[in-house]
Design a protein that fits this description.
Layout lengths: L4 H23 L10 H11 L7 H25 L8 E11 L2 E11 L3 E7 L3 E6 L4 E5 L6 E3 L3 H18 L6 E7 L4 E3 L8 E3 L3 H10 L10 H10 L9 H4 L21 E4 L2 E4 L9 H13 L5 H8 L4 H8 L5 E3 L6 E3 L4
Parallel strand pairs: 3-7, 4-8, 7-9
Antiparallel strand pairs: 1-2, 2-3, 4-5, 5-6, 10-11, 12-13
The structure holds zinc ion.
The site of zinc ion has 8 residues, from loops.
């Protein structure tokens, strides 16, 4: 078939327009997308499985542990607001660092010109027991008295101190590293403390920090503290969490699909024009797709395609799905329908 000049032009123009709209989408300023924190991801997963799902009890338990850990860290950070010191000092919180394949998560790090202090928070309630002869460390529930064996936190603290020493050495930084373990649970009673590290409760934390600093002479720090802070901040690695359905072995078919409504808690948000409206309660929220994309990565897979996003969100139109996905600053490989979207690694 020989196309007339007009037909050819129309086809050509459509092609150019399509190319142009891809180009405009690619150039538009995109919204950054962070991974969901673990506790929130588990909460989202719980909302998507049935009330009698075989993993529900276990997941609820995991959710309480993750959110208790966050509350404990918050108590530590809040208590630190009352910390004063004449000399220069810089606190840093929630660090994720890496030396080759060795990764650590450090709750707090206080930089001073005497030393750096690693602060590990432990949210363990009950009676804490440590037997120095057997090196057994456990808690007894109050009331009840059930015994739960735990990992000795001194080993983790030593590992973190050792990590920071190695990391400072790799950066040519000369600063001794000390450590403190802080028990943040409100109802925690020490019967005996593990030996080998300083251990205190939240209300004692600042006093213990001063004690460590008193015992540490001023050193000739090789770098200004702000420079060390910047180096640490620049070396943060994202905490990589496998998609939760893999971790907890939950079938995709067991997940409720749809976009979450933050008013009624259902998953009935419908795409209407450029916004979302809840089919159950009428709530309108143009940003509802943000959580849906984050949830997909946190719960299902680290690779997303247009088709998979439609399955998960309930969007029926592939152009609409593409427009939603193009709002976010994701790593894209492949072209057009073969596009694969991934979370950008920071
Ligand atoms: Zn609703």
């Amino acid at each position: 078939m020989v196309r007339s000049g007009y037909e050819w032009n129309a086809a050509h123009r459509r092609k150019i327009q399509a190319e142009f709209s891809y180009y405009v989408e690619a150039k538009r300023i995109k919204t950054e997308l962070d991974s969901l924190p673990k506790a929130l991801a588990i909460e989202c997963l719980l909302k998507r499985i049935s009330s009698n799902h075989h993993q529900r009890d276990y997941l609820e338990n995991q959710f309480h542990r993750a959110s208790a850990g966050i509350r404990g860290e918050d108590r530590m950070v809040n208590k630190f607001k009352e910390f004063t010191m004449k000399e220069e000092h810089l606190p840093m919180w929630d660090l994720n660092m890496k030396i080759k394949k060795w990764t650590v998560q450090i709750d707090g790090l206080l930089l001073t010109e005497r030393c750096a202090i690693v602060m590990d928070s432990k949210n363990v309630s009950g009676e804490i027991h440590y037997n120095a002869a057997t090196e057994e460390y456990y808690k007894k529930a109050m009331p009840g008295g059930e015994i739960l064996h735990l990992d000795n936190p001194v080993f983790q603290l030593d590992k973190h101190i050792n990590f920071m020493e190695n990391w400072f050495a790799s950066q040519g930084i000369n600063l001794p590293v000390k450590g403190l373990i802080i028990y943040t649970a409100k109802n925690c009673v020490f019967q005996s403390k593990p030996t080998g590290a300083l251990i205190c409760k939240t209300y004692q934390m600042n006093g213990y920090l001063h004690r460590i600093l008193r015992d540490s002479p001023l050193t000739a720090v090789s770098h200004p503290l702000q420079d060390i802070e910047k180096l640490i901040a620049a070396n943060q690695v994202p905490f990589e969490l496998s998609p939760l359905s893999e971790t907890y072995r939950i079938n995709f078919k067991d997940l409720k699909t749809g976009v979450y409504c933050n008013k009624c808690g259902g998953h009935g948000m419908q795409r209407v024009k450029k916004s979302w409206i809840c089919s159950a309660c009428g709530n309108k929220d143009a940003a509802a797709d943000r959580l849906a994309v984050q949830e997909y990565f946190a719960l299902v897979s680290d690779e997303l395609t247009n088709r998979k996003f439609r399955e998960f969100s309930g969007i029926t139109d592939s152009d609409a799905a593409r427009r939603v996905l193009s709002k976010y600053d994701l790593e894209i490989s492949g072209v057009r329908k073969m596009r694969v979207y991934k979370m950008r690694k920071k």
